[in-house]
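Service request form, structural biology core

Requester: graduate student, group of Dr. S.
Request type: structure prediction, single chain
Budget code: on file
Notes: please return the result as structure tokens.

Sequence provided:
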Amino acid sequence: MGPLVGFAFIGSVRTYAEASGLGGTAAGVGEAFSPLIGIWAPTFSACELAAVFLLPFVGIRLVAGDRQSGGLKLESQQSLPPIARVAAKALVLIAGWIIASGPVAAAIVLWRSYGGSIYWPEILTVGAGHLMNAGLTIALAAATALLTEHPSTAAILTLSVTVGTWILSFVAAVQGGVWERLARYTPTAMVAEFQHGLIRLDVVIAATALIALGLGWAAIWLRLGVPVVRRVGESTALAVAAIVVIAAGTTATKSWDVSESRANSFPLADERALQTIDGPISIEAHLAPEDPRRVDLERHVLGKLRRIRPDVQVRYVSATSIGLFEQTSAGYGEIWYDIGGRKATGRSVTAEAVLETLYSIGGVTSPALDDESVFRGHPLVTHAPAAATVFYLLWPALVISAGIVVKG
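Core staff response, request fulfilled:
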């Protein structure tokens, strides 16, 4: 974890410094100097990498080790309920994960010592997202370790599920539609939103339900004396309950933008103006799933619009997935807007153009631009002194020393 976090942190500081020295912080480029995007997102990404390729095997060994050594039979003789034993193992793994994430805390201290800006709501949100991701990994590892007979099988199954979520994200990028909606609840997509300072209630509900499902399955299959048919039935019932909770949670529209730059929100004046528009907003975009304009429209406009107006309805229309040969087709690239029967069309995917169109057909006066509300950023030119020593020498030495003390 030390070298992983160190490599990400040093690289992001170098890039941040280069960008900071290129031309001030005029309006429109402030987000380029947001520590959330420039420093913390890439630094914490090392935790995501470790959660995918390292944490599952630690969890499988902790859970399946008792089964291989026969310790599980001794544990079964205790009066402690299976769910309590699984929860205890999960808490131990979470505690170990927090300790292993110590290099991230060192990165925060170093950044502060360089004179960098610290906005704690952002850091806590990113940390919470990665802690949630670790919880998902631990729940998956616990379930596979007890559903299978051997740790190697559990490891293969865990990796298969992880790769499956990546495939789902790839299919969503190509096909769109229902695949795109499902891909929003993959661990990678969940973590990405937390790394941008956005907390969505539906994502929290889905993650909590999946963690409970994994740990619940582990507790069910921990009871070796219970007939397999009964355990299968209980596992199926628990899965159905989790699906119902997740499906109900998808209707939750509450979200919180904790980023200092309000990167996930429109300016407050625009938000107030959008809330005054009567009737549902219907948008039909003739853009293919892999068209870069669709990505920009979704990320910089529609994602923010849904947070303010949950009644917005977006429909994408395209004949192909890449849109390369649709450029000459009549109507491709057009975006149709409909508010209470009043319609307009445009081709621009910028926030300014879309908002002007909505104000025009919605009968709302466009609010005046407030220069004071523009995020100016926190540029910083530094060369990350002492970072390499901390992450590549001191942290590994500390871990090795602690291991020697524990083993001794």
